[in-house]
Amino acid sequence: MVRTRKGLTERHQKIIEYLNERISKGYPPSIREIGEAVGITSTSVVTYYLKQLTEMGLIERDAKFSRAVRLIDPVSRELVKVPILGPIAAGLPILVPETGVTYIANEINGVDVARSLLPKNEKGTQLFALKVQGESMIDAMINDGDIVILKSAVDARNGEMVAIWLPHRDETTLKYFFKEKNQYRLQPANPTMKPIMIDKTEPLEIKGKVVMVIRKVDTIAA
């Protein structure tokens, strides 16, 4: 059984990449071949993911035929490599890693994103990714281990989800941003957690706005 989540997961991404590779060679893969390529043993689970990709408007397929699948819009399906710069706390703020330190050990330093999923007119150089640590944004469908794609920004409107750096504390956090009369309110999306209140006399820097979330791979039971 598949544990469903709203949004594109790493598993969806891997399927898109494999379809792109196979179709570019002129012959779409079968359901079983897709499963073998992305590590799914159940053909029904592969079919489930293909159904989701169809609903997202990323592929077209005829369920009557095993290999009747194609990616929509060959131009828009191109992948953009977005660099993963490090972790971001979705909980209490975390310390900013030291300059030059590799702080996602043994993991890729970038994530491939289908261009069609990105906001229109966005350039890859304006985007960066951070790996979420913590559960303060779970009501926004952002969980521990997910990857958030952000557009570089230095300001934000009330209610936007942003990555924030607190220079005096050498800490970063991912929260909804609210500018109030005498303070900034960094609001979690978890009713069990309190907002972080920052006096306006304390420096606060907005580093980016969240434009997309890539879910960690769903748990699949054979």
Tell me about this structure.
It is built from 3 helices and 12 strands; from the N terminus they run H-H-H-E-E-E-E-E-E-E-E-E-E-E-E. It is an alpha+beta fold and 222 residues long. Strands 3, 4, 5, 6, 7, 8, 9, 10, 11 and 12 form a 10-stranded mixed beta sheet that branches. A hairpin with a 4-residue loop joins strand 8 and strand 9.
Write a concise keyword list for the protein shown above:
222 residues, alpha+beta, Arc Repressor Mutant, subunit A, Umud Fragment, subunit A, two-stranded antiparallel sheet, disordered N terminus
Which blocks of ≥5 consecutive residues have pLDDT under 50?
A: 1-6, 96-108
Number of helical elements: 3
Distance between the termini: 8 Å
Which secondary-structure class do the elements indicate? alpha+beta
Tally of individual domains: 2
What is the CATH superfamily label of the largest domain?
A: Umud Fragment, subunit A
What is the strand tally? 12
What is the H-and-E element order? HHHEEEEEEEEEEEE
- The assigned CATH architecture of the largest domain is Ribbon
Can you summarize the main beta sheet? 10 strands, mixed
- Provide mean pLDDT, rounded: 79
Question: CATH topology of the largest domain, what is it called?
Answer: Umud Fragment, subunit A
Shape: elongated
Q: Into which percent range does the helicity of residues fall?
A: 10-25%
Beta fraction = 25-35%
Radius of gyration: 19 Å
CATH class of the largest domain: Mainly Beta
